[in-house]
């Protein structure tokens, strides 16, 4: 019997009916509170917690229909199940109550067996819903913790070498994301630039996002002693990029091959003094290199996605950033952003946003974000949106 106990509110303007119903419910082990009017019931609901309301339909001043409608309109109270009670046994009354949100219906005079069965069934449904909501809130808390931890993986402050501007934009589609970007200063004074998209979505992609990001940054920084003997700066940068991507690829493929997780990844080392960009594009969306004169070129893949198979080869390539030039890296969440009519944003729209020439890297990202918002027209993103922009000041 203890498992069936609940906090019940009985609402009826007839005292004899209230007392009879309350007595029968107490005999079943429930805690019962009574109200003689619809207005009194609403006042009690505001100050007490109830597991179930048994509500009479025919009452003066405020009938059961209005009470039911007001409770359903209250976001904090609409979850309370309501069983309507009345001497009226017409089907129209039952239909109207169900349409307004009632859980069940009981006719007068009360049948003890039917009363017990319906109250018990309604309370069991509520307890099941309460457990589900508690579990959902627990998951939300865990996901929020995960979101905060993942956000800490992103650079708190972007490098700002003299004569350069580095800007980033990150908007996850869910609480945790598979996209990431990174920008960090190496011991040599060069800048490491990363933008990547881990396959799949959700928690699994987020966990691998943290792993990819950590491996790339750690392998780049730990390679410094081994590269110190190389006198040619360009070759040293190429070796750093190659070692980091190859080592990350082999570690993921050999250690986590059964997970079938990989990432498209663009990793570059920028020399702020010369503007030389040394990079590997592992299957990622080709970044855009916009010259000060307004011409745009792409930096296409120079190898496969990272983490698919061990021992894969990645070609190192170079690009020169002259004064006034701008680099834009992005994930496919930009070009594949959907409109309400399911049209992709597309590369043509993205390229069109490069004209007029942006006054800064951050202004370009703001321009793209505004265009994506207008294109989506309120539709929720189904993929993460990540961008990394670098501009060499004129």
Low-confidence stretches: none
Tally of strands: 15
Order of helices and strands: EHEHEHEHEHEEEHHHEEEEEEHHHE
Q: Average pLDDT, to the nearest integer? A: 90
Rg calculated over all Cα atoms: 32 Å
- Secondary-structure class: alpha/beta
Number of helices: 11
**How many domains in all?**
2
CATH topology of the largest domain: Phosphatase 2c, domain 1
Span from first to last CA?
80 Å
Spatial order of the strands forming the largest sheet? 2-1-3-4-5
Main sheet makeup: 5 strands, parallel
| Shape annotation | elongated
CATH architecture of the largest domain: 4-Layer Sandwich
Superfamily (CATH H level) name of the largest domain? PPM-type phosphatase domain
Q: Roughly what fraction of the amino acids lie in strands? A: 15-25%
CATH class (first level) name of the largest domain = Alpha Beta
What is the helix fraction of residues, given as a range?
40-55%
Give short descriptive properties of this protein.
single chain, 394 residues, alpha/beta, Rossmann fold, Phosphatase 2c, domain 1, 2 domains, 5-stranded parallel sheet, 15 strands
Q: Can you walk me through this structure?
A:
- By secondary structure, the chain is α/β, with parallel strands linked by helices.
- Helices cover 40% and strands 22% of the residues.
- It is built from 11 helices and 15 strands.
- A 5-stranded parallel β-sheet has the order 2-1-3-4-5, sandwiched between helices.
- The N and C termini lie far apart (80 Å).
- The mean pLDDT is 90.
């Amino acid at each position: 019997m203890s498992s069936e106990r609940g906090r019940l509110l009985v609402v009826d303007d007839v005292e004899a009916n209230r007392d009879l119903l309350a007595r029968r419910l107490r005999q079943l082990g429930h805690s019962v509170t009574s109200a003689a009017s619809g207005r009194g019931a609403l006042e009690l609901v505001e100050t007490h917690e109830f597991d179930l309301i048994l509500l009479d339909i025919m009452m003066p001043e405020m009938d059961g229909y209005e009470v039911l409608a007001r409770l359903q309109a209250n976001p904090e109270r609409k979850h309370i199940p309501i069983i309507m009670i009345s001497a009226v046994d017409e089907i129209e009354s039952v239909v109207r109550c169900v349409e307004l949100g009632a859980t069940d219906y009981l006719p007068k005079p009360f049948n003890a067996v039917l009363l017990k069965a319906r109250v018990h069934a309604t309370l069991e449904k509520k307890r099941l819903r309460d457990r589900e909501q508690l579990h959902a809130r627990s998951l939300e808390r865990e996901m929020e913790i995960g979101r905060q931890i993942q956000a800490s993986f992103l650079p708190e402050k972007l490098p700002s070498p003299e004569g350069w501007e580095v800007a980033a934009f990150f908007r996850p589609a869910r609480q945790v994301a598979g996209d990431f970007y990174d920008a960090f200063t190496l011991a040599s004074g060069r800048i490491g630039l990363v933008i990547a998209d881990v396959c799949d979505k959700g928690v699994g992609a987020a966990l691998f996002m943290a792993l990819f990001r950590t491996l790339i940054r750690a392998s780049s920084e730990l390679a410094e002693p081994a590269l110190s003997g190389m006198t040619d700066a360009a070759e040293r940068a190429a070796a750093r990029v190659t070692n980091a991507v190859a080592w990350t690829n082999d570690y993921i493929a050999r250690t986590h091959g059964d997970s079938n997780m990989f990432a498209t990844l663009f990793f570059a080392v920028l020399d702020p003094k010369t503007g030389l960009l040394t990079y590997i594009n592992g299957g990622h969306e080709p970044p855009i290199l916009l010259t000060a004169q307004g011409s745009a070129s792409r930096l296409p893949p120079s190898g496969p996605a990272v983490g698919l198979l061990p021992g894969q080869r990645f070609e190192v390539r170079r690009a020169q950033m002259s004064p006034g030039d701008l680099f834009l890296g992005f994930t496919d969440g930009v070009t594949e952003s959907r409109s309400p009519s399911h049209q992709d944003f597309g590369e043509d729209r993205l390229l069109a946003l490069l004209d007029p020439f942006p006054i800064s890297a951050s202004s370009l990202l703001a321009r793209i974000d505004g265009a994506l918002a207008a294109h989506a027209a309120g539709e929720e993103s189904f993929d993460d949106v990540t961008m990394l922009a670098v501009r060499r000041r004129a």
